[in-house]
């Protein structure tokens, strides 16, 4: 440009002389030219040639990934990834949003995808995220995001969270997880207010989940056939009641038999409010339709867990059964027995009566019978005495004679 000034010889493009670093040029699968520079040395030249050989091979095999696609931050990837996720239940969606905002975004939101490393993620999940259940759900969300980043044109070559390990959940003594006996349940019922007593009896006699029982509609009860059908549930999210058109899983759609005690509980509630036998569609503007529900509060509204705790905790305390436990991980206060333990009472009762496991699985609405076995069915309290009676049965006393 100095030898031939533009003002004398006219404008022309600058020439790109190779007088700096070694520049390895190649074209990606879309035909766009890419380049990477290497030091101006013999070693740099060999590195550039090796790089070109590797990249061209990956382009031919269709395994090429543009490194710049992994240079976006995790927060930017969330903005792309989250809207593309399949629609889930409201509670599931809000739980994931909460885990992202409370745990993942503050720590990793500004990190680039390509900079995330296994050991940093492992240290974070072990030392900074509190509570086994929270760790599990947070790791599931983060690992799912990074797994899809690998799938999306290989923004990153591998998922650094795939091998992150969780600590084993805290172990609990069997006495802390054993449900109350039927005698103890009867004692609790004596101290439950007269209004809620039918609900407590119903939960113990049917094994329904809380949302299945409180969402039971009169049209789904057949007293002549002595059964009910579980078709929808009530759920709570951030203190707001929601109506779901389906139970927890496909197996949740089921027919549950009604014992005489359960039938009496249903008839008692029906006599109080005389529910209608219509089934209103979800999303018609009046979500709950309490006039169709079997179990309602004293004022005729839908039952909530929060309100029922005001009755349940004083009842177990008056029965002398309440045990207050502080969770060592979350520092939350937990009470035993829980309302959900009535479901465990029901499953254990079916086991003791000899009901086949497959039938227990069907009645309780589980996909796998094994889950019913290890989660809901509990051994009897006197199992040690029973085993000892089999191993060392009592024998009549034998008089020992001494030799004279």
TrEMBL record:
Residue intervals passing through the bilayer: none
Compositionally biased spans, kind Basic and acidic residues: 169-180
Alphabetical keyword list: DNA recombination, DNA-binding
PROSITE patterns: TYR_RECOMBINASE (PS51898)
Domain of life: Bacteria
Secreted in keyword set: no
Region called Disordered, residue ranges: 161-180
Pfam families for this protein: Phage_integrase
Xref: SUPFAM superfamilies: DNA breaking-rejoining enzymes (SSF56349)
Domain annotation Tyr recombinase: ranges: 175-389
PANTHER family xrefs: PHAGE INTEGRASE-RELATED (PTHR30349), PROPHAGE INTEGRASE INTD-RELATED (PTHR30349:SF64)
Family: Belongs to the 'phage' integrase family.
Protein name as annotated: Site-specific integrase
